[in-house]
Design goal:
This protein is mainly alpha-helical. Helix content is 76%, strand content 2%. It has one domain: ABC transporter involved in vitamin B12 uptake, BtuC (Orthogonal Bundle), CATH 1.10.3470.
């Protein structure tokens, strides 16, 4: 089964990029940007949708509130009870969902841009599994063993980051053959992912039942119990890494044209790929540490964003908004629509699985055509 025809993808990307050359650029001093009305319009609509689901996420619960009341509290008003419910109980969960979704959306856009393959995402490649294995080792084994003792000193967020980075290094090294090729990267990532899932399963089987129950909730990807201590680390990482990625938009666009064209544009391909993959790993690992492995968001959000704005490749900013809408919207469904409250990761996986099948069928039809 063919994952994706890189040549066809390159031709499509090049065609779309050539069509954008006729657009007028907006220049401010030494800086210039191409204005795309469709991108602006879609981004505004997505931001409005995100604000709506964000307010609903805060408003609905055991003590329901109206959206105007929620907005009033967010602006500094409301009663003392309303401020406590919003600011202390519900706002951290909603903000964590927004930041985790944005981080996963950007991470997916980066891996898909570097590999030029719609099926590349941190959860498919095994990066999320590496972060998960490190975090589960910390939860299940505590301070036992030298390696786990080091993870315990780092804490859950840094342990997940270390696990994701080590996994990414292994995948990158095994995929390297004078460069990174999309098929090889994905196939090796799938293999590493399977091995790490097996290790995580072994940890769960051999652990104490109390540790297993705590790890199992985290493994399903949950925003339940999110606090401000989880919000700030993710917010800082998304702000810093996201800003650096937006600055590197020209490099990302060049890499979508293929290695030879990117080199002709003055881009150092291998170092650029390494930096972008590192940014993707950091975002995915921090998101995993904050909420657990929330599946398929990093895969689906960039592809949805790309189709909405009809861009040549996964757009960074729009992918971040799509990711945030998917996570917060899925958590809202998990809490209020379903008969029993479920972790958000179960809902995103239920929605993302069919989307993965759609991508496989669509890409195979392109190849056979």
């Amino acid at each position: 089964m063919t994952l994706l025809d890189d040549t066809a993808a390159d031709d499509t990307t090049a065609g779309r990029l050539r069509s954008s050359l006729s657009r007028r650029a907006l220049r401010v001093g030494p800086f210039s940007i191409v204005v795309r009305p469709l991108t602006v319009a879609v981004s505004i609509v997505l931001l409005a949708a995100l604000f709506l689901v964000f307010c609903l996420e805060i408003a609905l619960g055991d003590y329901p509130m109206s959206i105007p009341d929620v907005v009033s509290v967010l602006l500094g008003g409301g009663s003392k009870a309303q401020r406590f419910i919003v600011q202390d109980l519900r706002l951290p969960r909603a903000l964590t969902g927004v930041l985790v979704g944005a981080a996963l959306g950007i991470a997916g856009a980066l891996t898909q841009s570097v590999s030029r393959n719609a099926l590349a995402s941190p959860d498919i490649l095994g990066i999320t599994a590496g972060a998960t294995t490190a975090a589960v080792s910390l939860i299940v084994l505590g301070g036992g063993g030298a390696f786990v003792g080091i993870l315990a000193l780092l804490g859950l967020p840094l342990a997940a980051l270390v696990g994701g980075l080590l996994t990414a290094i292994v995948i990158y090294a095994l995929s390297w053959r004078g460069g990174i090729e999309g098929y090889r990267l994905i196939l090796i990532g799938i293999g590493i992912n399977a091995m790490l899932v097996a290790v995580t399963g072994w940890l769960m089987v051999s652990a104490d039942i109390n540790d297993v129950s705590r790890a199992q909730v985290w493994l399903n990807g949950s925003l339940n119990g999110a606090t401000w201590n989880q919000v700030w680390p993710v917010a800082v990482v998304v702000a810093v890494v996201g800003a650096s990625v937006l600055i590197a938009s020209f490099t990302i666009g060049g890499l979508r044209l293929g290695d030879e064209n990117a080199t002709s544009l003055g881009i150092k391909v291998q170092s650029a790929q390494g930096r972008l993959l590192l940014a993707s790993v950091v975002l995915a690992a921090v998101a995993t540490a904050a909420a657990g492995p929330v599946g398929f968001v990093a895969l689906a959000a960039p592809q949805i964003a790309m189709r909405l704005i009809r861009s040549a490749g996964p757009p960074i900013f729009t992918s971040a908004i799509c990711g945030a809408v998917l996570v917060v919207g899925s958590d809202l469904i998990a809490r209020t629509v379903l008969p029993v409250e479920l972790p958000v990761g179960i809902v995103t996986s239920a929605l993302g699985g069919p989307f993965l099948l759609y991508l496989l069928v669509r890409n195979n039809r392109k190849v056979t055509a």
